[in-house]
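Incident log, structure service

09:12 report received: a user says their structure output differs between two submissions of the same chain.
09:20 pulled the input from the user's history:
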Amino acid sequence: MRVHYLSHVPFEQLGAMETWFRERDVSISRSLLFQGDPLPDISEFDALVVMGGPMGADDDCDHTWMAPEKALIRHSIAAGKKVLGICLGAQLIARVLGAPVTANPDKEIGWFPVYPTSAGQSDSIGKLFAGAPPVLHWHGDTFAIPDGAVHLLESKGCANQAFRYGDNVLGLQFHLELQTDNAAALCDACPEDLADGPWVEPRASMLADGQRFEDARQLLGRVLSAFLR
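09:34 re-ran on a clean worker, output below:
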């Protein structure tokens, strides 16, 4: 399999996904959009991974790469490529599929459980979250569920945490890929996001429990296995 990923900022890379791909001899290529890398032709990859970032999904005027990126996502979906979106990436997919992206009532930053919806309980990916595992969140916006998509997961701080569109598109609002060093880099890059809020965990406690990151890494592997099979 050939995977191409789109990165919007230096501190949001593949994280634990890179190890999972390399262990399975997956070919990895990338476009670092923040430094002007070109987008690939859809013939050059089998799966597209769209990473996160602090910008909004409608900030096309502020980022010249965003409109072409959305076009690539749209063409990839139409061509039947596997498309996985993480945080901003999921929001961009939702926009491409015609759903709005708006401010969540509160920022959700830290480890909070996600719960399968009624539809998610019988979905091959949704049921992986049957035990309501804590996952790492870092977002202020939220996507609506696109028409024709299945709403898989929710949390107490944000109703829309994951959706599947057909068998080839998956959007996750949260970050299973972040390891301790990745999360620390995110804290360093966006300290203003850690202001007190009902769903904001302090940096120290967010980074303190290495087992949380290991559990997330293992859950990520199960999600990728189910989605990319």
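09:41 both user submissions now match this output. Likely a transient worker issue. Closing.
09:42 reviewer note: The two ends are 10 Å apart (CA to CA). Helices lie at 16-23, 66-78, 88-96, 180-189, 203-208, 210-228.
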